UniProtKB/TrEMBL annotation:
Residues 1-27 are annotated as: Disordered. It is found in: Membrane. Residues 15-27 have a biased composition (Low complexity). Pfam families: cNMP_binding, DUF7885, F-box. Residues 48-165, 206-326 form the Cyclic nucleotide-binding domain. Keywords: Ion channel, Ion transport, Ligand-gated ion channel, Membrane, Transmembrane, Transmembrane helix, Transport. This is F-box/LRR-repeat protein 2. One of its GO terms (molecular function) is intracellularly cyclic nucleotide-activated monoatomic cation channel activity. Its main location: membrane. InterPro entries: CNG_cation_channel, cNMP-bd_CS, cNMP-bd_dom, cNMP-bd_dom_sf, F-box_dom, FBXL15_LRR, Leu-rich_rpt_Cys-con_subtyp, LRR_dom_sf. The gene is FBXL2_0.
Length: 782
C-alpha cells in the first residue's frame, strides 16, 4: 500500500488511475488541504447526516486515510482483530463467505462498517471485499477513541448504531435449532448485523418520521425470524402478540376456512408490515398469515412495543390510528372475514397446508456441499433430496495410454513403438486402401468398414489397426476414421504427454472430440491438440479444470469451424476467456457458436451474457448456464436489447438469484424457446410463470422446486395460453403450492406426454390415482 501525503490533489482518489492489483491510501493531516469532494461525500453519508455536525466532519477528515480498492480486493477478514472502522464513500462492497464464492449482501455507497469491533473491542464479525472499484474512508481505533469523546452527540449516534447491530448479532446466535431452519445459509441470515436493523426499519412506512430514540428502542427489541414456503405464521382467531416486518419474501393473508382459500385477501412483500391490528386494537387475528416463499422478517413483541411507545404519547395515538385504518381497509377487501364469528381454523386444512415434506423444501444443489457451511437442521432435511451433486472424481495419473493400448493389442512393446512411430508420420491427403485377399475383410469395402470402425471406441480402433498392415493403413490414411474421438472413458490417463501420440494418430481428420473429465490436460497439451484439428466442429471439455482463458483464445485461432462447445465445470474460465473466444471467431469471419454449455462456470458474470448478446444472438440454439450464480437480472437486461431468434433450449437450473425481471427480459429476447428449465430458481414468483404465456412454442418446462413461482393459478394460465404449440413435458416436482386444482387443470387443458408431480405435498393421493387412471399421460411420475 502506498501512503500519499496531503500534497496530492483530490483527483488522485476520484480518478480511475490506480492499478487493478493495488490498494492506494491518502492521509490528510492539514485542515486546509482537505479535498472539498471528501467533505461533500462525508456530508452525504447517512450516518453523518444524522449527526449534523460540521466541525466533527472536518475533525475526522483530518485524521482519515482514504483508500481506493479495486474489485475483489479484501478489506476486512472475519475473526481478525479490529483496528479501524470504515465509511464507504464511493462504489460498493460485498459481505461474503470465507472462500469468497457466495455473496451474502452488497453494501452500497453511504454504508458504515467495522464500528462494532472498534466500539466494543471485538474481532471482525464478517469478511468484506470490494464489489466494484470503491473509495473507503478509514478511521483507526486510536483516532476514534480520541475524537469521539469531544463530540457527545456524535458518540451517541455511533453507539446507537453499534449497539443495535450487536444486539441483533447476539439474538441471531442465540436462536434455537427450530428457529434456524431456513433456506438461507446460517451466515447469510446474519446480514442484518452488517446493514443494521435501523436501516431496514426506518424504510418501513410504519416508522416514517419517528424520533431517533424511539427507533433505537425498537431496533434493540426486534428479533429475526425465518419461515419456509407454506408455513403458517399465525391463525385466524389467535391472540395478537407480535408485530411483523418483512425483510424479504412474500406473505399471504388468507381465510383457510373459506373453500376459495387459494385466493389471498392480501399479498405482502419486502418493506410491508402486518399484525398491527391485533396488537394495537386488542382484537383477535382477522385472517390467517401464510408464507408464500421462504421469508425473512423481524418480529416485535407486543410487550416490547407497548413499553417503547409508552414514552411517546403522540406516537401511541398515531399507531392506533394507523391500525384502525388498516382494519377499515381489510374490511373493504374481505368483508366475509367479519361476517361470521372468528373461530379456529379447520384442523384438516391446516394439516394439508402447513406440513411440508422435508424433500419438498426449496433448496439448491449447493446445499449438499459440505465445504460451504456447518450442518444445520435445515441442511439435514435437505440431505434427503434425491438430486445429487456432481460426483467427485478421484484424481490419479498414468501418462502411458499408448503402452496400455499396446498390451491390449497382444503385441510386444517393441512392435507397438514401431507402429506408433510409423503412425506419427503426418499426411494431408487420403489414401485409398484395397481390402482384397485379406481373409474375411474381403466382405467389406472401405465405406462399409468405415461405418463399422466409426462405432468403435478409441482403444478398439487401435486393436483393429493391429490386425494387419492393411488394417493399419486403413486407420492411418482413411478419412472415414477418427472423425469422432471420445477420450472421456480414458480420462484418468489423458495427459499432455499422451496428447502428443494421439495427435499423430488422428492426423487432422477429427470433427468431434470429447475430453470430458480429462482433468490433467493443461493449456500446453490443449494447444497442441486443437492446432492439429482444423476441421473440428464440436468439442466437449466438461470438467477440464486446468484450462484457462488462454485456451479459449487458442480455440478461436485454430478451430474456425467450431460451433458446439461444452465448458461445463471449467473452473478457471472467466468472462475474459469467453470474450476472447467469441471475438476471435467474429474478427476472422468464422461461424459463431450454436450450442454452448457453461454450467458450473462460477467465475462467469453478467459480462458473459453481454458477450453472447453481441456475438451469438443470431446463431445460438442451445445454452446451459446452470449454477452460474453470478449471472443476475442485469445480464438478461443485456439480452432485451437484441433478439435470439434461433434460441430454442435454455437451462437456468440453480440460477437462484434470478427474479421475475430476468424472465421478462428473456421472453422478449428469445420468443421461440421450446425447452426451458427454471428448476431451483427460488427467487421467482407467480408472475414469472405467467410471463411465459408469450412463449407460444414452449413444449418442455422444468419448474421443479421453484418455491413460490408455481401455483394452481399460474399453471392454469400457462396451459390455457399455449394454443399454438401445446406443452408436452412438464416437471412440477417439489412445488409446494400446487394442489388438486392443478391436476384438474392439467387433465382439462393439457396434452402432456410427460408429467412429474412427485414430492408435491398439496396433491392428494386420490388426485394422483385419478390422473393415472385417465391414461392421458404416457410418462407419469407421481
Amino acid at each position: 500500500m502506498i501512503d500519499i501525503q496531503t500534497t496530492e490533489r483530490p483527483p488522485f482518489w476520484l480518478n480511475n488511475s490506480t492499478s487493478s492489483s493495488s490498494v492506494s491510501s491518502m492521509e490528510i493531516s492539514d485542515e486546509n488541504s482537505i479535498p472539498p469532494e471528501l467533505l461533500h461525500s462525508l456530508r452525504q453519508h447517512s450516518l453523518f447526516q444524522r449527526t449534523n455536525n460540521e466541525h466533527f466532519l472536518e475533525e475526522i477528515a483530518c485524521h482519515m486515510h482514504l483508500r481506493i480498492y479495486s474489485p475483489r480486493d479484501v478489506i476486512i477478514v472475519e475473526g481478525e482483530p479490529s483496528k479501524a472502522m470504515f465509511f464507504l464513500l464511493k462504489g460498493s462492497v460485498d459481505v461474503c463467505s470465507a472462500d469468497f464464492e457466495r455473496i451474502y449482501a452488497t453494501l452500497p455507497k453511504g454504508s458504515c462498517f467495522g464500528e462494532i469491533g472498534i466500539l466494543f473491542s471485538m474481532p471482525r464479525t464478517a469478511t468484506v471485499i470490494a464489489s466494484s472499484k470503491c473509495i473507503v474512508a478509514l478511521l483507526t481505533a486510536d483516532d476514534v477513541n480520541t475524537i469521539l469523546p469531544q463530540y457527545p452527540e456524535v458518540q451517541k449516534v455511533l453507539l446507537f448504531e453499534a449497539e443495535e447491530r450487536l444486539a441483533l448479532l447476539n439474538k441471531s446466535k442465540s436462536m434455537n435449532g427450530a428457529e434456524r431452519i431456513s433456506h438461507k445459509p446460517l451466515t447469510e441470515r446474519n446480514v442484518e448485523e452488517f446493514t443494521g436493523a435501523r436501516n431496514l426499519l426506518q424504510k418501513s412506512p410504519y416508522f416514517k418520521d419517528c424520533p431517533e430514540e424511539f427507533l433505537h428502542h425498537i431496533s434493540l427489541r426486534v428479533e429475526p425470524r425465518h419461515y419456509a414456503p407454506n408455513d403458517l405464521i399465525y391463525k385466524r382467531g389467535d391472540e395478537g402478540t407480535d408485530l411483523y416486518f418483512i425483510l424479504s419474501g412474500t406473505v399471504e393473508l388468507v381465510n383457510l376456512n373459506d373453500t376459495r382459500s387459494d385466493i389471498p385477501v392480501e399479498r405482502l412483500s419486502s418493506g410491508d408490515y402486518f399484525g398491527d391490528i391485533s396488537v394495537l386494537l386488542n382484537k383477535a387475528r382477522a385472517a390467517d398469515a401464510r408464507a408464500v416463499t421462504a421469508i425473512e422478517l423481524y418480529i416485535l413483541r407486543k410487550s416490547d412495543f407497548i413499553k417503547a411507545v409508552s414514552s411517546f404519547p403522540n406516537l401511541q395515538q398515531h399507531f392506533k390510528e394507523m391500525a384502525e385504518k388498516s382494519l377499515s381497509q381489510l374490511k373493504t377487501k374481505a368483508p366475509l372475514l367479519f361476517d361470521t364469528e372468528t373461530g379456529k381454523t379447520d384442523s384438516l386444512m391446516l394439516d394439508q397446508t402447513s406440513k411440508i415434506k422435508p424433500s419438498s423444501v426449496c433448496s439448491t444443489t449447493s446445499d449438499q456441499d459440505p465445504t460451504l457451511l456447518p450442518q444445520t437442521a435445515a441442511s439435514a432435511f435437505r440431505g434427503n433430496e434425491t438430486r445429487k451433486r456432481r460426483a467427485s472424481v478421484a484424481v490419479w495419473s498414468d501418462p502411458y495410454l499408448v503402452a496400455l493400448a499396446n498390451r491390449n493389442l497382444k503385441q510386444t512393446n517393441s512392435e507397438q513403438q514401431a507402429n506408433l512411430k510409423e503412425n506419427s508420420v503426418s499426411t494431408k491427403t487420403s489414401k485409398s486402401v484395397d481390402f482384397y485377399g485379406d481373409g474375411r475383410l474381403t466382405l467389406f469395402n472401405e465405406e462399409i468398414l468405415g461405418l463399422v470402425v466409426e462405432h468403435l471406441d478409441f482403444l478398439s480402433v487401435l486393436r483393429f489397426a493391429a490386425v494387419s498392415k492393411r488394417c493399419r493403413d486403413f486407420v492411418k490414411y482413411s478419412d472415414k476414421v477418427f472423425q469422432k474421438v471420445d477420450l472421456s472413458h480414458l480420462n484418468k490417463r489423458i495427459t499432455d504427454e499422451v496428447i502428443e501420440s494421439i495427435v499423430s494418430l488422428i492426423d487432422g481428420r477429427t470433427k468431434q472430440i470429447s475430453l470430458s473429465q480429462c482433468f490433467y490436460i493443461t493449456d500446453v497439451g490443449f494447444k497442441q491438440l486443437v492446432e492439429s484439428v482444423p476441421l473440428l466442429e464440436a468439442m466437449d471439455l466438461n470438467s477440464c479444470w486446468l484450462l484457462t482463458d488462454k485456451s479459449m483464445a487458442t480455440l478461436a485461432l485454430s478451430c474456425p469451424r467450431l460451433t458446439q462447445l461444452d465448458l461445463s465445470n471449467c473452473r478457471k474460465i472467466s468472462d475474459a476467456g469467453i470474450f476472447q473466444l467469441l471475438d476471435g471467431k467474429a474478427s476472422r469471419g468464422q461461424p459463431q457458436l450454436t450450442n454452448l454449455s457453461l454450467s458450473y462456470c462460477k467465475k462467469l458474470s453478467d459480462m458473459t451474457m453481454s458477450h453472447l448478446a453481441t456475438f451469438c444472438s443470431q446463431s445460438l440454439v442451445s445454452l446451459n448456464i446452470q449454477r452460474c450464480t453470478r449471472i443476475t437480472d442485469q445480464g438478461f437486461g443485456k439480452w432485451a436489447e437484441t433478439r435470439f431468434p434461433s434460441l430454442s433450449t435454455l437451462n437456468l437450473t440453480d440460477c437462484s438469484f434470478l427474479t421475475d425481471q430476468a424472465v421478462a427480459y428473456l421472453v422478449t429476447a428469445a420468443p421461440h424457446l421450446r425447452s426451458l428449465s427454471l428448476s431451483f430458481c427460488c427467487a421467482l414468483s407467480d408472475s414469472a410463470i405467467e410471463g411465459l404465456i408469450t412463449l407460444s412454442e414452449l413444449q418442455d418446462l422444468d419448474a421443479s422446486f421453484c418455491g413460490a413461482a408455481v401455483s394452481d393459478v399460474s399453471i392454469r394460465s400457462l396451459l390455457k395460453s399455449n394454443v399454438l404449440e401445446q406443452i408436452r413435458c412438464l416437471n412440477l416436482r417439489g412445488c409446494v403450492r400446487i394442489t388438486d386444482m392443478c391436476i384438474k387443470s392439467i387433465l382439462e387443458l393439457a396434452k402432456l406426454n410427460t408429467l412429474n408431480i412427485s414430492q408435491c405435498p398439496g396433491i392428494s393421493l386420490n388426485a394422483k390415482q385419478n390422473i393415472k387412471a385417465s391414461g392421458s399421460i404416457i410418462n407419469l411420475v407421481a
